Amino acid sequence: MLLFILCVALAGTGLYLKQKISFYYAMYFDKFEHKKLTNSAAEEERIHKIIGANTDKTFGIDISHYQRKEDLQWDSLSVGNRSVPIEFAVLRATMGNHSKDRHFEEFWALAKKHNLVRGAYHFYRADEDPVKQANNFLEQVPLESGDLPPVLDIEKIPRRKTKEKLIEDLKIWCKIVEDRYGRKPIIYTYYHYHKDYLEGEFDDYPLWLANYNDVPQPSPHSDWNFWQFTENGIVYGINTKVDVNIYNGSLWSLKRMTLE
Questions:
Q1: What is the predicted pLDDT for the residue at 11?
Q2: Which of 38, 37, 25, 43 is CA-nearest to residue 83?
Q3: Could you say which residues of the chain have pLDDT below 70?
Q4: Range of the domain at 233
Q5: For the domain that residue 177 is a member of, what is the CATH number?
Q6: What pLDDT is recorded for position 36?
C-alpha cells in the first residue's frame, strides 16, 4: 500500500511538472500570437501570471450569445499559448422570468460533442419573480449525467426589493432547482457582491467568484470552487475575447462534481 501511494504521488508530481514546463515552453519558445485580439501589457502579464501559477488546476470558459457561432472552433480550445487545454464550458441558458439565450441549444450540443464538461447558468434578474425564473431555467435546460450542477448568476442589485427580500428570493430559486436535481446550485457572483450581500447566507453552496484584479486568488477569506479571472481572455480557437475560469482542482475532481 505504501508503494502504491508513493507511485500515485510521484505520478501526480510528474504531471504537475509536465504541465508547468509545457506552459513556460509555450510562453517563451512557441509563442502564439493571436492575429486579431490583443490586451494591454499589464492585463496580458496578469493573465499569464495567473495561468502559470495554476497549471495544476482546470481551465474553462463561459459563453453566451454575445459570442458569435462563427467565432468558435470547438475542437481546438486552449490558453497559455496553446499549452493549457480548455476542459469545461459553462453556457448562459436563461435570463429572468422568460428569456432564453438564443445560442444555448447549439452551444450545449457542441460542448458535449467535443467532450467538454458542460454547465448551464441562469442570469438572475433581481426584481423579477424567483419561482418564474427557476421554472424558466428548468424548462429550458436538459441537464444530464456528467453535467455540472445548475448555476445561478447573481450580480445585479435590486431596485425595488430590500437585501433581505433578495436573499429570500434567491433561496427560493435555489430550493426549486435543487429539488429537481438533488444538488445545490453553484452560486456565481463578483467578489464584492458576495462580500456585501451573500456571505454567510450561501456558505454551503459551491462558489464561483469573478475577480479581475491582480490577486493570487479571488477571495482572501472565502473558500471557492471556480474563479473567473478575466473577461478579456484570448483563447486559441475563439476569435473574440471571452471569460476564462479556473476550477480549483484537477479534471478528475471536476468530473466528480458533476451530476450522476
A1: 52
A2: 25
A3: 1-35
A4: 2-256
A5: 3.20.20.80
A6: 78
At residue 22, what are phi and psi to the nearest 5 degrees?
-60, -40
For residue 44, give the amino acid letter. E
Cα 256 to Cα 259: distance, rounded to the nearest angstrom: 8
Q: Is the pTM of this model over 0.70?
A: yes
The Cα 187–Cα 197 span in angstroms is 12
Condensed to tens digits (0 to 9), the pLDDT of residues 59-106 reads: 999 999 888 888 888 988 999 888 899 999 999 999 999 999 999 999
Domains in the chain, number: 1
